[in-house]
Amino acid sequence: MRSRADSAKAAPASGGPSSLWRPLHTPLFRNLLLADAMSDTGTFMQSVGAAWLMVSLAAGPIYVALTQTASALPFFLFALPAGAVGDIVDRRKLILFTELWMAAVAIVLAVLTIAGLMSPALLLGLTFALVAGVGAAFALNVLSFFGVIVLVARWKRPVRHRTTPPETVAGATVAALRYVRFSPSLRGMVFRSGLTMFFASALIALMPLLSKTVSDSPTGYGILLGCFGAGAILGALTLQPARARWSDEAVASGGVAILGMMTASAGFLHAMSVLAAAMLVAGAAWIVFISLVTTLMQTLAPDWVRARVLAIFMLVFQGGLAAGSALWGAVAVRADIQHALLWAGLGVVATTALGLVSRLPDATTDVSPWNHWRMPAIVKDLRPDFDEGPVLVTVEYRVSGDRREEFLEAIHKYGRIRRRDGAFRWGIYRDLEDANRYVETFLVTSWAEHLRQHERSTKADREAEERLRMFVTAVPNVRHLVSA
């Protein structure tokens, strides 16, 4: 259950404790944050209203849990194409469209609820459409969107100048999947967050039913969710000091372990004060993990693919929430709420073991552009069109005789960078007639995609390239060939 303002809470830790407030000195960020906070207030009012309305309609645990599934499922279905579109089109217009869509659906929710025409199935469908909103809460949610709409409409976003043709949605999607596939650190974080949220979703999905065990009033559910949110604020405030003292891995694993313990014990707490305290701690642990992973995902993804990488992260993250909510609702029907939360909590704790094989990466990696490759001197009459391809690039290396094994180890690591940035096939070959000659080859779909490949190299790749040069005795000979 990640709001749009979570990213604002996830500011990088560099620069000491004051860095938490540093982004507020930027007027655009500050105004967007305030408008977004108002919008999120309405969204959470809608979430409370939708969940409690489902309970009031005498729906069973599976319907209540599916409310969370309906909220998360649109992210799973549309995150990847939305991320691709976000890296291609004007993001200002995209945000305006989505905010207007959500405002329109919230109006429908408010009207149907006030008119007494709402049903469990209809509520699930409209909740799905909204993320894609009891009465007054839904109406207030409508108003909450207009601050963001007005601010984004007035935003004068700088014109983006391109040196290559814009990517298609399909091509941009493939590029994003390829980038994550060949980036082990990003791939590990995506998998880890999805699995953690699969188990952690039980607490949010079953919270309306959990609140009903200690209070028959919607106020009780509001108090529990409010404590969860207050805990998230406390967690965001303590994240910077914690990162200054411990490693990112220790902070994230600690947060996940605490969240798991709170989830496992929640079903056995029958006093509102004790349960509220548990939700406060759970909210802090929840935001610590989400903020830390989200920050790393944004920091480690270069600008050209950032929206798409975050879309893949959201796809897996929200997919875990959607699938987990449905599963734990079904478990609560078969067993009971206490045991569903107990098993889910133990599962959350168990995911900390992933830190042994997929530790969180170093957040100081420099992913700024490093476009240093020499452009080929193309004969005028042979200049290819942008869509011509595939393009075959060959690189000939002369390697020191006693360092061939080290060269092969280095070139295979560098090959991952080639594939990450655009090559759909890569290989390294040795010359049977010359023991010191090696030829690297890689294929790119088109000439435009190869030009983009030049722009996608980052300063973080410099170390891999410089290590490769240590084993080479001459300047590599590069050739570019286009399919005839």
Keywords, separated by commas or semicolons:
single chain; alpha+beta; Growth Hormone, Chain: A; Alpha-Beta Plaits; 3 domains; four-stranded antiparallel sheet; 7% strand
Topology of helices and strands:
Elements: H1 6-9, H2 27-56, H3 61-88, H4 91-114, H5 120-131, H6 136-154, H7 169-181, H8 184-212, H9 218-245, H10 248-266, H11 272-300, H12 306-334, H13 337-350, E1 391-398, H14 404-421, E2 425-431, E3 434-444, H15 447-456, H16 462-469, E4 477-482
Antiparallel strand pairs: 1-3, 1-4, 2-3
Architecture overview:
With 484 residues, the chain is of the alpha+beta class. The protein is 65% helix and 7% strand. A four-stranded antiparallel sheet has the order 2-3-1-4. Helix 3 (61-88) runs parallel beside helix 5, helix 4 runs antiparallel to helix 5 and helix 9 (218-245) crosses helix 11. It is elongated.
